[in-house]
Amino acid sequence: MSAPEGGGSTSERLAPVTYLPGADPAEEPVRWAIPLASSPDAESSRDGASQVDDDEDDSSIDDAESALARRLRRSALSEREARTFLAQHGVEASVVEAVVDRFLSLGWLDDAVLAEQLLHAGTSRKGQGRRAIAQTLSQRGIARDTADAALAALPDDDEDRALEYARSKAHGLRSYDMDTAMRRLMGQLARRGYGGTVASQAARTALTEQRGGGGVRFR
Q1: How far is CA 24 from CA 15, 20, 29, 171, 197, in A?
Q2: Which of 40, 66, 84, 173 has the most C-beta neighbours closer than 10 Å?
């Protein structure tokens, strides 16, 4: 399997771009796209790719590449997740490294891009705070320095995002007394990575607004 080469229609060679969960198709897409298994170049030479020793079974490398490419067409993986996926499918360690190195060189595995997409999903779709997003990056196997670089680009607006989320949930708690509603809403905010002070302030503001206790709510 090889990367698409010049001289042909790219649209004939590439599978559709796969967006990560929560990514907005209007935004710049994930920059990897995996060649279709049926494309003319899918089983051609491996120019520029990392090679294992000559006595390695080439068919095992082909099988591993094909399996990982199929998996990546569904959703992106981190470098660590790709290694785990191959190992769980019984691929030998030397073949795992060869395949991962090749996919890294082609840009089909890119932890920095994955981190950006997970951050986008966490903030725009899930209403998560910085702490929850950092935990997600760690769970996905994103290296600390890569995760820190992505988080550094996140605006310091946890209070605003917490309040926005709290407002979206306050109406559903109108049947509870204030203390019960506060506990429930603060619990929801905590599960999304908002600390005690931020969660408490957001919950109290949203519930007070919802119950007509003053304040102007901007939509």
Answers
A1: 19, 9, 8, 27, 31
A2: 173
User: Of the candidates 21, 77, 65, which has an alpha carbon nearest to the alpha carbon of residue 41?
Assistant: 65
Longest dimension (CA), the chain: 76
Q: Do 90 and 118 have their domain in common?
A: no
First to last CA, the chain: 51
DSSP H helical ranges for 47-157: 58-74, 79-88, 93-106, 111-124, 130-139, 144-152
- Would 218 be classed as within a structural domain? no
Q: Give the residue among 118, 119, 100 at the shortest CA–CA distance from 108.
A: 100
Please state whether the predicted TM-score (pTM) of the whole model is above 0.85.
no
Give residue-wise pLDDT tens across range 31-88: 444 544 433 344 444 444 444 445 455 678 999 999 999 999 999 999 999 999 999 9
Q: Tell how far CA 140 is from the center of its chain.
A: 8
Please tell me whether residues 136 and 166 are part of one structural domain.
no
